[in-house]
Specification:
single chain; alpha/beta; TIM Barrel; eight-stranded parallel β-barrel; two-stranded antiparallel ribbon; 39% helix; binds NADP nicotinamide-adenine-dinucleotide phosphate
Amino acid sequence: MKYLELDGGKLRVSNIVMGCMRIKDLEQTQLDTLVHTALEAGVNHFDHADIYGGGACEERFGELLRREPGLRDKIVLQSKCGIRPGYYDFSKEHILEAVEGSLRRLCTDHLDILLLHRPDTLMEPEETAEALQSLLDSGKVRWFGVSNHNPAQIQLLQRSFGQKLLFNQMQMSLAHTPMIDAGMTVNMRIDQAIDRTECTLEYCRLEGITVQAWSPFQKGTFGGPFLGDRENYPELNEMCRQLAEKYGVTPTSIAVAWLTRHPANIQVVLGTTNPARLLESCAGSALPLTRAEWYGLYKAAGNRIP
Ligand SMILES: NC(=O)c1ccc[n+]([C@@H]2O[C@H](COP(=O)([O-])OP(=O)(O)OC[C@H]3O[C@@H](n4cnc5c(N)ncnc54)[C@H](OP(=O)(O)O)[C@@H]3O)[C@@H](O)[C@H]2O)c1
């Protein structure tokens, strides 16, 4: 397992993160097995949001932490807030209230990391920063980041907040590559050249912000996994199969390795509830795809290299 040392070494996170958006309906023993499989494989970072399962995902995880209190200090616990039903809310009042809810459901007195889930265009940066500062001062949250933000949105908040924002969680998979596409086709009159993220990946690299890739196996947004979809992704599935054979892993590991191989030090936020798939994913944590293989997978997913 590869780890990233952040904030001058004060924060050490695995580059594979267990996302907890889909754990709501697991049996208790299934959840225990999943979490312990992750821990034994070296995963130390767990991602939540106040809205996952309407709060039930945090509750399920909190029950586990209550049953096994020794676990809390071994993990990096992350949650998100800022989404309300039908709109976004980065007001101080909402952020403080949302974090209280997450702490209660997760049965803990602090979050290691809080991310602001989706940009709120009505954000008053000073007010939002005041909320984050108050959470930091009270010890309820130690580090902060954002999700689905472009560079200017990050700068707008960062200008008012004294602690460096460390993360930006963005959708990214072999079948969802807007953060890569425009940079590969600069100045060309083709759709692939449309910059949908405003150079977010390059900006994050320049600023030392860690990108967390959500939905690493999905096509579109929650469109189902591209692995196994030979009808729409025949070349990609074939190339994943061939590389899996070469490296003695599975196509799942190759899909993860395509993200981890990028020098941006991307963290991969898994959504699997299947311990076997989780282990296959971990095998992609530090798998050294060659440049030719990395670009080959990108092309096999239907993208153009001019
Ligand atoms: N920041 C945001 O806006 C945002 C948005 C969405 C999600 N997230 C975070 O990202 C995490 C991951 O998101 P995600 O769950 O969409 O990611 P994902 O890992 O791409 O998808 C997981 C889902 O795909 C299924 N799956 C994966 N590979 C498969 C295969 N080869 N065959 C059949 N089924 C397969 C899994 O089933 P099994 O359970 O059977 O493996 C699971 O239902 C979430 O848990 C959450 O923490 C963040």
